[in-house]
Design a protein that fits this description.
Largest sheet: 5 strands, antiparallel
Radius of gyration: 19 Å
Shape: flat
Number of strands: 7
Oligomer: single chain
Length: about 160
């Protein structure tokens, strides 16, 4: 099985489980994701570079460890086409937000999720899955806001240049 991540390289060693205990990989190994491909995407005046790295897993126990990792489906994917369909910036933002949300206690996660209209149907999830859904939701919103600001800036620059001419 091949797992992929959005970066030039990625290493998975261990992680904290749902109860705060350290989960160590089977057979005491580390998982090194090696650079596979870098693509350049051009949008209007911008050029973005996205790198994908991959790790080959041969053991069912190791695959299960990766699937249970908190960043699975946020920054690490089992389907090699999934990262290509996602914006690399959104994935990076989701990982950053996950790191922040994972430090919150249960009541903070529930409070923030309750305040978000897109999370109301997910309130029945167990806390670990709710954290993941919240991180993805917050990352998507942050990227949409970032795109709006960029769009407004470029429109403003266009209007300024038109006024000068």
């Amino acid at each position: 099985m091949v797992f992929t991540a959005h970066s030039k390289g990625h290493v998975v060693v261990d992680y904290y489980g749902q109860n705060g205990q350290v989960i160590i990989p089977p057979y005491g190994g580390i998982f090194e994701f090696k650079h596979a491909v870098t693509t350049k995407i051009r949008n209007d005046n911008e050029e973005q570079t996205h790198s994908i790295c991959q790790c080959m897993i041969r053991s069912k126990k190791e695959a299960e460890f990766i699937r249970n990792h908190p960043l699975f489906d946020i920054g690490i994917f089992e389907n090699s086409t999934t990262p290509l369909s996602l914006d690399g910036s959104t994935v990076q933002r989701a990982v950053e937000i996950w790191n922040k949300v994972s430090s919150w206690d249960k009541s903070q996660v529930i409070q923030v999720a309750k305040g978000r209209t897109d999370m109301r149907d997910k309130m029945g999830l167990e806390i670990f899955k709710l954290r993941k859904a919240l991180a993805l939701s917050m990352a998507t919103q942050a990227m949409e806001e970032s795109n709006d600001v960029t769009l407004k800036k470029s429109k403003g620059m266009m209007i300024e240049s038109m006024m000068k001419s």
